[in-house]
Amino acid sequence: MQDNQPRTSTTDTLPEVITRYLTAHRAHDTATAITAFTREATVIDDGNTYEGIEAIGKWLSRSATEFTYSIHLTGAEQTDATRYIATHHLEGNFPGGTIDLRYQFTLGDGLIERLVIEP
User: What are phi and psi of 60, to 5 degrees?
Assistant: First the structure.
């Protein structure tokens, strides 16, 4: 019988590619963050869809400079063989000032092929 229950993960048990992306994104290191994605990856953030490495690179650059904020990982779980959720608490100068966001990762070939960011 297969265990299909989500498994809670800590930051040390998230796959390296996800921690690489999260660390680089937090440091506003777009060049490193982009290496975590497949060439055809899709990111959905704030109601917008970014498809392909070039569009994702522009999104990363813009999101690094649009607002000033702190971001803290508050939880992580593996939902199946290729899907992970990392929950973050953000505080900053964006509308509302604080928010908890779920970063939902789907991996393919050892890289991020889909990332959906939503409350």
Answer: -60, -45
Q: Report the alpha-carbon distance of residue 25 to residue 84 in Å, rounded.
A: 17
10 Å CB burial of residue 41 (0-12, 13-18, 19+) is: buried
pLDDT digits (tens, 9 = 90+) for 5-49: 444 445 567 999 999 999 999 888 999 999 999 999 999 998 999
CA 119/CA 30 separation, integer angstroms? 23
| 85-119 core/surface letters (b: 16 or more CB in 10 A; e: else) | bbebebeeeeeeeeeebebbbbbeeebbbbbebee
Largest CA distance in the chain: 48
- Give the separation between CA 77 and CA 97, rounded to whole angstroms: 26
CA dist 82 and 17 (Å) reads 12
3-state class (DSSP) for residue 13: helix
Under 8 Å CB-to-CB from 95, ≥6 apart: which residues?
none
* DSSP reduced 3-state for 31: helix
